[in-house]
Amino acid sequence: MSKRNFFVIASLAGAGLVLLTIFITGAAAFKGRRSETSKSWNQEAIKATYVTTQLKETDKAHSTLTLSYDLENNTDSDYHLDAGPGVVILSRLKADGSLSQQEPLRLSYPVFLPAKQHARLSIEMTQPFAWPIEEDPAYVEKLREFVKQRLASVGEFALFDQASRAEVRLPGAWQELQEAARASY
Questions:
Q1: Does one domain contain both 27 and 87?
Q2: Angle, nearest 10°, between helix axes 174-183 and 139-151?
């Protein structure tokens, strides 16, 4: 065997070994990432209690519905939530419990929740709505109807923090709102 043939065979074997190493390393990294994303969502770390709802006029053609919750951190770690691609808020539909992104929801402000403590969280949705004039006899009813339409099919909201794999269930209190509205007539 000539030196040239030996050099070609050794080069091919070396290249094959490098490719095999890259393949094995890449497969292990992919498998590690896959097991991270298949890990179930932690629903016990952060608990939420409904506090209040507020409707405000954003501009002449839009209104913002804000829902506030008290969060309780049941873990030994601090927790931080900020608007961004890793935090997703979905509606859980009353009819079948499925998740929906039909209504655009976002955090009202960043939240820092120290270990074993409470903090306030607000989510909001901005929708087209021509704010009625206060002199309109149906003023209050129009506002209530707007809120009712936005929340009629929603059982609760679910906030998913992809970094910590935490799911925070934001309970609905729409039934209580409707009963309070009826009682005020």
A1: no
A2: 160
**Domains: count for the chain:** 2
Q: What is the pTM of this model?
A: 0.74
Task: Give yes or no for a contact between 71 and 119, defined as CB atoms under 8 angstroms apart.
Answer: yes
Q: What is the DSSP letter of 41?
A: P
Q: Which of 54, 47, 94 is nearest to 71 (CA)?
A: 47
Sign of the CA dihedral running 135, 136, 139, 141: positive
Q: Which domain holds residue 151?
A: 46-183
- pLDDT digit string (tens) for 99-110? 999 889 999 999
Bridge partner list, 42 = 166
- CA-to-CA separations, 174 to 64, 97, 167, in angstroms, rounded: 16, 16, 21
